[in-house]
Amino acid sequence: MSITSALVRAMGVSRSTLTALARITPGQSPPYSAPTVSHNRRMHPTDALINTLDSALRTLFAKPHASAPCATLPEAPTTLSQPERELAGGLMRVNHVGEICAQALYTAQALATRNPRLRAQYEAACAEEVDHLAWTAQRLDELGARPSLLNPLWYAGAFGLGLLAGRLADDVSLGFVVETERQVGAHLQSHLGSGPDALPAGDHASRAIVAQMHSDELAHARAAEDAGAVPLPPVVQELMRGAAKVMTNLARRV
């Protein structure tokens, strides 16, 4: 093992992260993108642990950078009153938390599966979710709102659930993806209507982002179904809805 490799192992960070950090100029935030690993073989447990910690740290503390442009409606500029900005900020904070959890879930499920093709599918979905993470973070900044103070807690909880589902069986893990994405889709749809959880009608910027996210989440659910997902028991679905409701109410305020 080379001296560089030994230092990388000792410091507990990946080579890709060290390379990226070396290119950062003072005052610049480190970029974030979803981690990638070889799909043809399982990583050494130490490497898998380092990669997992690296992903968690970048999700929680690095500035995410989208690979696709943010969904916008340039012909419909957004002008909001202060109460509307506060409402939109709370709702988009919840959506940002959802993307924090998505990174944790897919990272854990990719770690748990022994199926290289399924691991690649989880990692591809994780990479796509980075766009959502970046878009919601950017929109929070534009609204003058902050991310949830409980993001480390949300990440840890979602990672644990993803790891548990992945350890049970691949078809169960895929079923967890389907149910999660369907519930997320229903939550996002509520932002696009006119009910109590809707974004302000004039917040075209947030609505464009949420509409694109809604489409992407349902596509992930269909991909999981096609890969062999089994439906989760109704009691599990209800428990997931209950946990999501607690998270939503807390994240909107904290």
Written overview of the protein:
By secondary structure, the chain is mainly alpha-helical. It has a single domain (63-251), classed as Ferritin, core subunit, four-helix bundle (Ferritin), CATH 1.20.1260. It is built from nine helices and two strands, in the order ααβαβαααααα. It has a two-stranded parallel sheet with strand order 1-2. α4 (82-112) packs antiparallel against α5 (116-143) and α4 packs parallel to α6. It is globular. The termini are far apart. The relative contact order is 0.13. Mean pLDDT is 84; it is low at 1-33 and 35-40.
Number of helices: 9
**Structural class, from helix and strand content?**
mainly alpha
CATH superfamily annotation: Ferritin, core subunit, four-helix bundle
- Biggest pleated sheet: 2 strands, parallel
Taking the alpha carbons of the first and last residues, their distance comes to 46 Å
Order of helices and strands: HHEHEHHHHHH
What does the overall shape look like?
A: globular
- Overall pLDDT score: 84
| Physical arrangement of strands within the biggest beta sheet | 1-2
Count up the domains: 1
Rg from Cα: 19 Å
Corresponding CATH architecture? Up-down Bundle
Low-pLDDT regions: 1-33, 35-40
As a percent range, the share of helical residues equals 55-70%
Total number of strands: 2
